[in-house]
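Hi, here's the filled form for the chain we discussed.

Project: internal
Contact: R.S.
Residues: 472
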Amino acid sequence: MWKEYINAVSVEQVLSLLAEKKGQARILAGGTDLVLEMRQGLHEGIQTIIDISRVGELSKITLEDDLIHLGAGVTHNQCLADPIIRTHALPLALACWEIGAPQIRNTGTIAGNLVTASPANDTIVPLFALDASLVVRSRNGERRIPLKDFYTGVRRHVLEADELATEIVFRKMEPNQQGVYLKLGLRKAQAISLVNMAGVVTLENGRVVKATITLGAVAPTIIHAEKAEQYLEGKELSDEHIQKASQLAREAAHPIDDIRGSAAYRQQITQVLVRRGLSQIASGEAAARLPDVPVLLSTETAEQELPETAGEPLAPGVKPIVTRINGVEFTFEDGHGNTLLHLLRDQAGLMGSKVGCEEGECGACTVYLDGKAVMSCLIPAPRAHFAEITTIEGLGDEGHLHPVQEAFIEQGAVQCGYCTPGFIMSAAKLLEEIPDPSQTQIKTAISGNLCRCTGYYKIVRAIEEASKKEGA
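And the returned structure, exactly as it came back:
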């Protein structure tokens, strides 16, 4: 899929590479979109992948004065757990909670979501409502682009080939501001939005001073429901006013018909979501949808940064991939141009991680990468360089099974068995993170794992029983 892969160690290195490669390089932050697109034959002119996932300066969330700075390497789960985002940017936190499943949220980044530029992407909509800007850099300097000026159409934007998006900047919400994010997908997890909306309302003495309502998946780019925003100014958020504003929002939507839904249905859902969102703001219930202890499937305790010597191009016959898998060091001379899943199976001979959808949908390939559960079918093989990986083979053995493995056997939580390694990996990481999880937390933890035999009841019961075992 690519000829060379570079695990970047600094922003300066990235900018130099982008200038040197002249449009033949692509930035990879999480890879949840890019790897799939390249497998589908898109981006054929791309020769080099520049991985920024371990550039420490890009993985920070800071609050300076009233401005929140979100580095380009910040993941959805990082946002979801961060007190700055949860307290001062609730719509963004809610959007992160709705994205994919824990494994996807562990790798996918906010900046990557923005640069992919699909109007159905979740985090663009709340960042529009928060009036965010994108900071981009090249060897020629830096510029700050308001998101409203960044997009030119479906999957199109103004970022130049030699530019790197380094951070997202937006003003924190004030105490008199309330926000919300809602979406409708075809299922509860791993769903692309049919329609999504975000709202930020400024209130004084019970009346709306300013209302911002942004809509996704109903136009080529994210749009404002301008007439609805204007209508609400100076009014109370009464049921009558909310109903009228939602009708005006419906009129702002100009969606298309496609396989996932008709234009008429999307317009109706726009009205429903805006009414629900404004009602949640009026009642103060929006924040209640965000769990106090979100399931992350991550026990990472320190930043994973590469040594300065590790940022050299990786390619067969040029430089091998050196990694640790299940506590054993491996050196791979081949397999650079594929995914971590195939590196594990084809090069390391570890067949426990299964080849299912290869689109990050089924979770059968779940492994741990530097302490985080990830979909290995969406991780480039060279990302394993100087990383720590755990597969199902490293979780237990015949002489000493992991408590989750024991519980799966005892509860008969296996039918065809193909999905079982992925479920066990997700469950074991959950119990490492939350030793006594609720049933809701268990269901969230396995929301990225698909059982085609529909054996979920016994799987959930097995995880519940495993949490009671010593050593779980």
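Let me know if anything looks off before we file it.
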